[in-house]
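Section 3.1 - Work completed
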Amino acid sequence: MPPYTVRVATIVSDFPGANPERIEQLVSKNIEETVQELPEVKKVTSQSRTGLSVVTVTLKDEVKPEELQDVWDSLRRKLEGMQNLPDGVIPDLNDDDVGVVYGVMVGLLSNDFLMRNWNRPPKSSGTILLPCPTQPKWNSTASRNSRSLLNLIRFV
């Protein structure tokens, strides 16, 4: 599979004890407005829960992979400069795993495979793929189709 660029990051903010409505008005809404000041932003969504704000930022497709870190750094500076958040609320931009991603699909077929194990990635895949020093992170999603197990492994 060819590489693809992930242009999405999340901003997580804790505000212990606040209900979702208060989180929305005092935290999520203010962060959304600050994020939308960046010209590279395509879409902003948020979820306000009891004590927690999660704002998801999607960048425009025109943002090149080599420009991603500069955009996230610019956003981080904007967030650090916010004056309109309640005391103690610090927006945390989670973009460490954002960038160019390579996908690998591995299909396995077995007549002896136990169906109760279908949702666990095979140990041999992890054994073969994890030690690779240039691919330190991975995850897999398994789904079954009658007799087969398919793992989609994402490297970041």
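Second construct:
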Amino acid sequence: MGVPGLRTYASKKLVAKHRLRNAILVIDGLSLQQDLYRRHLPKGGSAQPFGGDYNRFAATVEAFFRALLQAGVTPVVIMDGSVPPEKLATKLKRFNAQLAVSKAVYEGRPTGGVINALLNPELFVQVRGGDVCLF
């Protein structure tokens, strides 16, 4: 769930671009899965308003891990476990936001939100490949 605004701050102030090679990289699996899902969507929104489009998402995940492995980077992916009590309110807020987007799509109203397909986490785990450590 992280620190609000940390990604934006880090991308503008702290992160320098460089080529990572021959290293071990620890990755927040849920965050990566959601980021890759948003990246694979066509510009301007989702081609599948109710989520899904699993073939394209699988290709995006495969390409990401293939690029890491080709660079000699060993990805170690940590998937979320249970939600600690102090983060439950944030989790519920995000869940309610997903419900609001789903309702708007169902009613045919335009929405700027993205509906995360239900099977994305399972697909992400399956597609990541045997060379990727998953915890």
